[in-house]
Amino acid sequence: MLVNEMELKDLVGRRFVTDSREVKPGDVFVAIKGNRVDGHDFAHQAVQAGAFAVIVEKDVSLPNQVVVPNTVEFLGMYASKILEKFRPKIVGITGSNGKTTTKEIVSAVLSAEIPTFKNEGNLNSEIGLPLSIINSYRGEPVVVLEMAQRNVGDIEYLCKLFPPDIGVLLNVGSAHVGVVGNVENIFKGKWQIVENSKQALVNFDDKRMRCEKCKYFGTKGGNYVLKERRFDGKNTLLTFETHEGEFYYALPGFWPKAMAISVLVAFAIADMLDILFNPVKLLTFKPLKGRFNIYRLGKAFIIDDTYNASYESFRHGIEEIKEHFPRPAYAVVGAMKELGEYSTYYHQLLSKLLEEIDGVIVYDKEPESKDIAPNNLLFRSEKEDEIVKFIKDKILVSEFSGTLYFKASRAVELDKIVDKLLEGLNI
């Protein structure tokens, strides 16, 4: 219900926000009831800050309120109507790991040839994705959307609002298994992007991913194959294979396997959309913060992979360290979150995995890390300063020429330790 004869057209072109502290004059404030905070309690504060309108689910006695049955669903439908007006080609991307990086790489490739919209940062939920579209979409003919899942049904909900012409499923692992319930449910939820897309692009290397409308990327077979990845000390050399033959690319710097796969996905999407694959923007592409950022310290390497963590992403990281970086190799690690009843199991698996390198330092900020107990444990502490001191005194000594790898879930805030070390070393 719209009150005071305010029309939806009056909201067009205005910035939508869900945090009353961010309201600026002319904005539209959307009151969302969360688990801890109810946005309706801050509607008056938003108006005092200059909100043009407040979207609410109940009467809050404001002259510029817009009352709707559900504010989250209103956001989604409003954003959906915006896309319907322009009818762009929509690429939806999901997976347990690598969604944001893949979205950035795909949009970089496509935008070199055609105006392309991407959702901002990791605004990939039923709230963040519509907000990104409402606030930033300007009619681009191609839209690349990262879609996140916390519960089964989330992907289907987003796909109904923003139906993908191509739905991409990168991988399915253990991330958020404690929320979803089990790995089978994770797969069921992620597979909804295939079920709700006109075409699908999925990972051939995962035997569970098979369907009639699917095209495949992978390393073991499929329509688009990463046949070779080689680092020559300066560039990463990639060889892609399709039914049309082999394609060769050289990208500056070291590109981990996961990022090389993201480039392959971009190659496949460009082909499926009949757009020239133009990698020019990849020549200056920088990994997002906390996604395998590499820093040189003389002959040594510091690798910041702290953005997030699952057992699978840990395994990929350790494989990269073993194959491409100098020994001794040490890992500074913390807990993997949202694993629920599977937490002990996956942290024990991680302990075995970490024994493949030369030593481990555990930052015990979160309780789950107590189950990280590899035989090559060097030091552990719940205090940030003690971890920093140990690394400086025992690892990063003048003659160190190995590798120091940092990884944990975001809640651990291991990135703060990395930042302290880099600041102190003037890197």
UniProtKB/TrEMBL annotation:
The lineage of its organism: Bacteria, Thermotogati, Thermotogota, Thermotogae, Thermotogales. It comes from the Bacteria. Involved in cell wall formation. Catalyzes the final step in the synthesis of UDP-N-acetylmuramoyl-pentapeptide, the precursor of murein. This is UDP-N-acetylmuramoyl-tripeptide--D-alanyl-D-alanine ligase. It is an enzyme of class 6 (ligase). One of its GO terms (biological process) is cell division. Residues 290-372 form the Mur ligase C-terminal domain. GO terms for cellular component: cytoplasm.
